[in-house]
Amino acid sequence: MPQLTFAATGESYDVPEGTRFLDFCQENNLPHDFGCTVGSCGTCACVVTEGAESLPSIGDEESETVEMATDEEGARLGCQLVITGDITVRAAEV
Ligand code: FES
After folding, report:
1. pTM of the model
2. 11 C-alpha vs ligand 1 centroid, how far in Å?
3. Chain centre distance of CA 66
């Protein structure tokens, strides 16, 4: 089972493969800002600081929203991020 680590706290969780990052946060009362939950507002932007290579590639729609939300290199949308391997995540600077 993939492991999700929050860079800010160092806390780690086992996450069923294929779970969306934001869904896991909401189901486990883990704070992460969000808005639309469908990939259009950019509020959930985050940066995968470790393990990004294990994730599905970013799509065009996600990429457009990320570019609107943050200038951070390698940022993703928490509501679109499907966990497929061990990752460490922090909120993006928006
Ligand atoms: S919550 Fe709006 S883009 Fe993710």
Report:
1. 0.94
2. 23
3. 11
Summarised one tens digit per residue, pLDDT across range 32-68 is 999 999 999 999 999 999 999 999 999 999 999 999 9
Residue to substitute in 20, 40, 61, 89 for testing ligand 1 pocket (most ligand atoms within 8 angstroms of CB): 40
List 47's β-bridge partners, or say none.
Answer: 75, 90
Q: Which two tokens stand for residue 57?
A: 């590639």
Structural domains of the chain, with CATH: 3-91 (3.10.20.30)
**Would you list the DSSP string of 70-90?**
---TTEEETTT-B--S-EEEE
Q: What is the predicted pLDDT for the residue at 94?
A: 78
CB 47 within 8 A of CB 21: no
